[in-house]
Specification:
- The complex is a heterotrimer of chains A (about 625), B (about 100) and C (about 500).
- By secondary structure, chain A is mostly helical.
- In chain A, about 70% of the residues lie in helices and about 5% in strands.
- Chain A has helices at about 10-20, 25, 30-55, 80-105, 110-130, 135-150, 160-190, 195-200, 210-225, 235, 245-250, 255-265, 265-270, 275-295, 300-320, 325-350, 370-380, 390-405, 405-430, 445-460, 470-480, 495-515, 530-535, 540-585, 590-615, and strands spanning about 60-65, 70-80.
- By secondary structure, chain B is mostly helical.
- In chain B, helix 2 runs antiparallel to helix 3.
- The chains are: A mainly alpha (about 625), B mainly alpha (about 100), C mainly alpha (about 500).
- Chain C: This is NADH:ubiquinone oxidoreductase subunit M.
Chain lengths: ~625, ~100, ~500
């Protein structure tokens, strides 16, 4: 089965090409075609996972670009992490394809939509199977393009256009860091392949400073793609894209690519304590930063977007604290419950035709399936006991505690409180309380079925990582490698504290939002803190001034250089020549007497020269 | 009569030549220009005759040459005046600085 | 078979002769005959490519004929100076010749809508092709110079007669700058000839190492000036911007696609091959200069209001990558530089072709006049987006391979400079997306202007896009012929 692994990304690629080239003809069967093209990879991925679980390893490379004696290759490699990611990506992609059939059915450009989805899925699957850093970078950029195209799908909207541009440019900044890191590693180790790099790190072939520098540069790439501080502002804006896209890309897969990058380069990071600290600190700060902003946002999707940023921060925090297993575990559970939340949000938006939670309320009775599903996702995200999120968050807390950074530990706990607070703020504002008079119908089964699948996973997926069942996930991940740190077990009181915090958050949310009486309940408090949070700490504005205006300013300076210095140079040259010509033409004015004067003067000068230089006739 | 040295005649010719040159190059009236040209030619004649009598190789050559230049001067004056008449008939003016059709 | 190269060089004459026989008012005939006649050189280049022996270094298909010779009284008796007619192909010239002939065919297809003075337009085209092919096929400095100069004349007329509003100024600008470059080139070539007695590349290669180092440095600096005007290097680039803005689109396709590459070709063949030691000494300067090109062009492209100017400064920026790659003086860098020559030729031809189509339809290329093109002209918008993504170096397109290799190369020698250069990647993304999205996304403003790209126009666009993606996905297709050339240059440049 593993020998067919290379075919996994080819099906979505086929979907991309077919949908792009035959947009008009394929439109009616586009969703079916798209779903088939993701179902096959799903089946294959599950097969690959099972094979890997049984211990088969597989690597295959072909030469891509010759470089002197060596060559850069492209290929396929199946490690435990890869196999797991393959299943996650293809599963969520398949579910999103199914969901989109109903959600996007009114769109004229359905074929184009499915083709972009196919491109993205192809790139993401190729990324997680990469055999060396160059291939990873190539698919990394392709994932970025897929995301760009999908965010900008509603291209007539200026907001979508701006959001797509912003997403691409910000992730590009990260990509440049990644590129520099890759190149530096190549010159230090002589190879692009993961194995060779890690070997070099282990055997001391790279200096400590260089390890730190390259690890940090690679982390810059992860910051960009995963929306960590300071390159986070594109993620909330990316909500301009269709909601299924947000579920696929900005919850489950693309943003997880940054976490995946750190995980796959983990031996490099482990070798540098500075890099680990940086990863953990940035992760922690991002987590609490984003959670605080999510508390006051009124747009349903934006809250979820900030929640994604915050949860990605958790994953980075875990990885940076040596909790490889915890980070990867949370990656998996987050993919499920966040995708579920986005799809459920999409269902709500599809029914209610607004994204502003101030205009919603009391939908629990009207959307009888969406409501419970959303709550399942919210409970999982908040770490409610027995749901998947509880186990993965617990693992993260354990790892951070074990690492000894108590400040970060405290931040993690505080963020958990904020997380359940803002999630249940959403739940209570959207589903409970006074309702509008309009009739809303629940959505069709096509919309609901994927959510049910994800809902089940959002509960069940936690068990494969918990120690109650012998931690099969952790054992699987460690299969075949010895360089990964073992899972830490936190203090005994940790799970209870976590439960307490999450319940506290739900409680406060109920008190604040669950008991309101009037519809359009406005939180009109305009205290400075609220304003700061509502405006996202003004980060966007600061970036706008520094970078956008700054770059335009530099451009304008160069325009002046162009106009006055460079063209000035040329212009001066031209006008000098013209001036000389004018001087010369002053002679030719048609006055005979002037001609005569010039002739006589010339003659006199020549005679003078003759006498001076040679002494004349009289010697 | 005292012997006037050679340089005296040469000086006289120089002065006459310069006056003629000045007139030829600066005067507006074409007739004056022609007169100045005649003056220059006569200065040359003086020069030639002076060298013929007092110069390094005294002889008749200079004087013969002077006769030639006088002839040429006469012919040139005639032609010049003819051109001047034609121009005057066309342009009703004898001012040299108005004849600038050759200008760029 | 053994005169294939000469046949290739003079094959555009067939076009000239045939066109001369057709009356000037039969425009359809003229266009079709021109198209067929451009297929002839393309076919010949393909034939050459088939028979080209990979792995054999040096000159292939060499032809020599004695031509000029004269005796001069030197200090030690009579010296005979001989200049022969020598032509031949190596890997680099083969690649560039393919680019040239292909772009000629596509440019002729793109010129279908020329209305006035059609006959002389195509006559100039063929003359230009003659010059371009000759430049790449010449094996001695004299022939190189002749063909180099030969390209200036038809370009001057093509710009000055068939261009847009400010065409005459652009044509004069072009002629003066390039004429200056040719002057410097002439001085260097003549000096070399007088000092070494030969103009043949191979013979020069043998003789040059024994000359004094300061003389060689002087020659290299002069060559840098001459080819720097052509490349173009900032601050000698203003003529190129004018040409790109004022010349008609097919002419810009050729200019940006081929003529600028002559600068790169000259730097490699004459700069690196003849004067490797001095080139290495200057490598640091060249690297910084390349980064300046990249950043200067990119920031300027960011603030332009006219799409053509955006693309013009984008060309300045991309040619900086060539300098960066060459300055690295290692396999990755030089390979990246050559690939960038090829890749940029294709990408800028595609983009300028599309701009030309837009301009034909709407008589404007100002960004503010366009919005929502994707609604009315989705195929064109898609092509523009694809071209823009290729321009910013997206993997899967040729631009990525060349930029990646160039930076890979430079990081080995000058990591700090290279790191600054990579900032250019960010600014490139910014200006490309700004310009392309401003045109294609957004509300559509006026319905009647949106006539979709037709079948004839699709041909060049899709061929170019296909090639760009082919090279991006299978770069070894192109790098194979380059291998032996690189093997020759690299030991020289790595040196001591």
């Amino acid at each position: 089965m593993v020998h067919y692994a290379f075919m996994i990304p080819l099906f979505p690629l086929l979907s991309f090409l077919l949908h792009l080239l035959f947009r008009k003809r394929v439109r009616s069967i586009a969703p079916i075609l798209g779903c088939i093209c993701t179902l096959v990879p799903l089946v294959l991925s599950v097969g690959v996972l099972i094979a890997r679980f049984q211990g088969t390893t597989y690597t295959k490379e072909i030469e891509w670009l010759s470089l002197g004696k060596t060559a850069i290759t492209m290929g396929v490699v199946i490690t435990p992490l890869n196999a797991m990611m393959l299943v996650i990506v293809s599963l969520v992609s398949f579910l999103v394809h199914v969901y989109s059939k109903e959600y996007m059915k009114d769109s004229e450009r359905l074929g184009t939509y499915y083709s972009y989805l196919g491109l993205f899925t192809f790139a993401m699957l190729g990324l997680v199977m990469s055999v060396n850093v160059v291939q990873l970078y190539i698919f990394w950029e392709l994932v970025g393009v897929g995301s760009f195209l999908l965010i900008g799908f509603h291209y007539t909207s200026l907001a979508a256009r701006a959001a797509a541009k912003k997403a691409f440019i910000m992730t590009r900044i990260g990509d440049v860091g990644l590129l520099i890191g890759i190149i530096l590693l190549y010159w230090k180790t002589g190879s692009f392949s993961f194995a060779a790099i890690f070997q070099s790190v282990a055997s001391g072939g790279i200096s400590q400073e260089m390890i730190t520098v390259t690890a940090l540069l690679i982390f810059v790439g992860a910051i960009g793609k995963s929306g960590q501080l300071p390159l986070h502002t594109w993620l909330p804006d990316a909500m301009e894209g269709p909601t299924p896209v947000s579920a696929l890309i900005h919850a489950a897969t693309m943003v997880a690519a940054g976490v995946y990058l750190v995980a796959i380069m983990y031996p490099l990071f482990l070798a540098s304590s500075v890099a680990m600290t940086t990863v953990a600190v940035i992760g922690g700060i991002t987590a609490i930063f984003a959670a605080s902003i999510g508390l006051v946002q009124d747009d349903l999707k934006r809250v979820l977007a900030y929640s994604t940023v915050s949860q990605l921060g958790y994953m980075m925090l875990a990885l940076g604290s040596g909790g490889y297993d915890a980070g990867v575990f949370h990656l998996m559970t987050h993919a499920f419950f966040k995708a579920l939340l986005f799809l459920a949000a999409g269902s709500v938006i599809h029914a209610v035709h607004t994204q502003n939670i101030r205009e919603m309320g009391g939908l629990w009775n009207k959307l009888k399936f969406t409501g419970p599903l959303f709550v399942v996702g919210a409970l999982s995200l908040s770490g409610f006991p027995l749901f998947a999120g509880f186990f993965s968050k617990d693992a993260i807390f354990a790892a951070v505690y074990h690492d000894g950074r108590y400040v970060l530990f405290f931040i993690a706990l505080l963020t958990a409180f904020l997380t359940s607070l803002y999630m249940f703020r959403l739940v209570f504002l959207v589903f409970f309380g006074p309702a509008a008079e309009k009739i809303y119908r629940e959505n069709s089964i096509i919309l609901l079925a994927p959510m049910v699948v994800l809902g089940i996973l959002a509960v069940v997926a936690g068990y494969i990582g918990s120690s109650w069942f012998g931690a099969p996930l952790q054992r699987f991940l460690h299969d075949g490698t010895t360089s990964l740190p073992l899972e830490a077990h936190g203090p005994v009181w940790l799970p209870y504290v976590a439960i307490l915090i999450s319940l506290a958050g739900i409680g406060v949310a109920y008190v604040r939002y669950g008991r309101r009486k009037d519809f359009h309940h406005e939180n009109t408090s305009s205290s400075p803190v609220t304003m700061l949070l509502k405006n996202k700490y003004y980060v966007d504005e600061v970036y706008g001034v520094i970078f956008v205006k700054g770059a335009a300013f530099i451009g304008t300076i160069f325009v002046f250089v162009e106009r006055y210095i460079i063209e000035g140079m040329v212009g001066t040259l031209a006008s000098t020549v013209q001036w000389l010509a004018k001087c010369g033409s002053a002679f030719q004015n048609g006055q005979v007497q002037r001609y005569g004067a010039v002739a006589i003067t010339g003659l006199a000068l020549m005679l003078l020269l003759f006498i001076v230089l040679t002494g004349g006739y009289l010697q | 009569m005292n012997n006037v040295p050679l340089s005296g005649y040469l000086l006289l010719a120089l002065v006459l030549f310069c006056i003629g040159l000045f007139g030829a190059l600066t005067k507006r009236n074409a007739v004056i220009v022609l007169i100045s040209i005649e003056l220059m030619l006569n200065a040359v004649n003086i020069n030639l005759v002076a060298f013929a009598k007092y110069g390094e190789n005294p002889g008749l050559t200079g004087q013969i040459f002077a006769l030639f230049t006088m002839t040429v001067a006469a012919a040139e004056a005639a032609v010049g005046l003819a051109i001047l008449m034609a121009l005057y008939r066309k342009r009703k003016s004898v001012h040299v600085d108005e004849m600038n059709h050759l200008k760029q | 078979m053994n005169h294939l190269v000469s046949l290739l060089i003079f094959s555009p004459l067939v076009g000239i002769l045939l066109l001369a026989c057709i009356p000037g008012n039969r425009e359809r005939w003229l266009k079709w005959v021109a198209l067929l006649c451009t297929l002839l050189p393309l076919g010949l280049v393909f034939a050459l490519g088939m028979v080209f022996r990979l792995g054999e270094s040096g000159n292939q298909f060499a032809e020599t004929m004695s031509w000029l010779s004269y005796a001069m009284q030197g200090a030690t008796g009579t010296v005979i100076y001989a200049i022969r007619y020598e032509v031949g192909i190596n890997g680099l010239s083969l690649v560039l010749l393919m680019l040239t002939t292909l772009l000629m065919v596509l440019a002729v297809i793109a010129s279908w809508s020329i209305k006035h003075h059609v006959k002389s337009y195509f006559l100039f085209f063929f003359l230009l092709e003659l010059g371009m092919i000759g430049v790449f096929a010449a094996q001695n400095l004299f022939l190189f110079f002749i063909f180099f100069e030969l390209t200036l004349v038809p370009m001057f007329f093509l710009i000055g007669r068939y261009g847009y509003r400010d065409r005459e100024g652009a044509a004069y600008h072009f002629l003066l700058y390039n004429g200056l470059g040719s002057l410097v080139l002439l001085i260097v070539f003549v000096t070399l000839f007088m000092v070494t007695g030969t103009m043949n590349y191979a013979e020069l290669l043998a003789v040059l190492p024994s000359l004094s180092s300061s003389f060689k440095m002087g020659c290299l600096l002069a060559l840098l000036l001459a080819f720097g005007i052509k490349l173009p290097m900032v601050p000698l680039h203003s003529w190129m911007v004018k040409v790109h803005v004022e010349a008609p689109a097919p002419v810009v396709m050729l200019h940006s696609g081929v003529l600028l590459k002559i600068g790169g070709y000259g730097l490699i063949m004459f700069g690196m091959l003849f004067f490797p030691e001095e080139f290495k000494e200057l490598a640091g300067v060249l690297a910084v200069w390349g980064v300046i090109n990249v950043l200067y062009g990119a920031f300027l492209a960011l603030v332009q209001k006219d799409l053509k100017r955006v693309l013009a400064y984008s060309s300045v920026s991309h040619m900086g990558i060539v300098l960066i790659g060459l300055a690295a003086c290692n396999e990755a860098g030089i390979k990246g530089a050559i690939l960038q020559l090829l890749s940029h030729g294709l990408i800028s031809a595609l983009l300028f072709f599309l701009v030309g189509i837009l301009y034909e339809r709407n008589a404007t290329s100002q960004l503010k006049d366009y919005s929502g093109l994707a609604v009315g002209m989705p195929v064109t918008a898609g092509l523009l987006l694809a071209g823009g993504l290729a321009s910013l170096g997206l993997p899967g397109m040729s631009g990525f391979v060349s930029e990646f290799l160039a930076f890979l190369g430079l990081f080995e020698k000058m990591p700090i400079v290279a790191a600054v250069g990579t900032l250019g990647l960010i600014v490139t993304a910014a200006y490309v997306l700004r310009a392309i999205l401003a045109i294609t996304f957004g509300e559509q403003r006026s319905m009647e202007r949106a006539v979709e790209i037709n079948a004839r126009e699709r041909v060049p666009a899709f061929i170019l896009l296909a090639l760009i993606m082919l090279i991006g996905v299978f770069p070894n297709v192109v790098t194979a012929p380059l291998a032996t050339l690189l093997d020759t240059i690299l030991p020289l440049v790595r040196g001591s």
